[in-house]
Hints:
Blueprint: H1 3-8, E1 10-16, H2 22-37, E2 45-47, E3 56-63, H3 70-74, E4 78-86, H4 110-118, E5 122-126, E6 135-136, E7 139-140, H5 141-146, E8 156-169, E9 172-179, H6 185-196, E10 200-210, E11 213-214, E12 232-233
Parallel strand pairs: 3-10
Antiparallel strand pairs: 1-3, 1-12, 2-3, 4-9, 4-10, 5-8, 6-7, 8-9, 10-11
Amino acid sequence: MTAEDLQSGHIFLLDKPLDWTSFQAVNKMKYKLKREFNLPKKFKIGHAGTLDPRATGLLIVCCGKFTKKIPEIQDAPKEYWTEIKIGVQTESYDTEKPEILHQDISDITEQQIKNALEKFVGEIEQKPPVFSAIKIEGQRAYDLARAGKEVEMKSRKTTIFYIEDVKIDLPLVSFTVGCSKGTYIRSLAHDIGQELGVGAYLTQLRRTKIGEYSIENATSDFLENDFRFDNTLND
């Protein structure tokens, strides 16, 4: 690996840890690459699809001339391992905010849960979470929400290709979901709870695939003091 190789184009598959933003992960990597390879100040690097701080898993980072591949990778289908908790909600639809609106789930059956999940497979209308990075009149929705301002999110069409490997251990339900670009799994968790009539929120989320790229080939070595270049892609 040389500075010329990196500037010609390289793809790194990162396993983003919990509570890191995608921006922080890319910045950490940029710093280490520039330091180790004495790269120019304007060295190009960026990620191909944001992963929420409360999510872990596959974050694709493109550098050099391969930053041109970012739009193509962003458009690819995604896969996530998902865990939700039913019978309770949060304002953020995930663990960022405290639990509210607890409800009794003693009458909820496993078959009801499986039936509810099946209803979301296919093209659906989905409202993004208020606590999201979507811009509203030039401001991020999460900034407005955290400032206590009322935010109206518009519905959008998205596609759930499959929901499989369902495991139920109430109040927790986990499954693997394949979806199109722009799908909010937090909103999916919330909507499943509404379908069941008892509420739900996202407790864990791990991105496992983006198109042809898999978490199995990803590395978290960018957190180490000495960066290693195992498990990277270059084509």
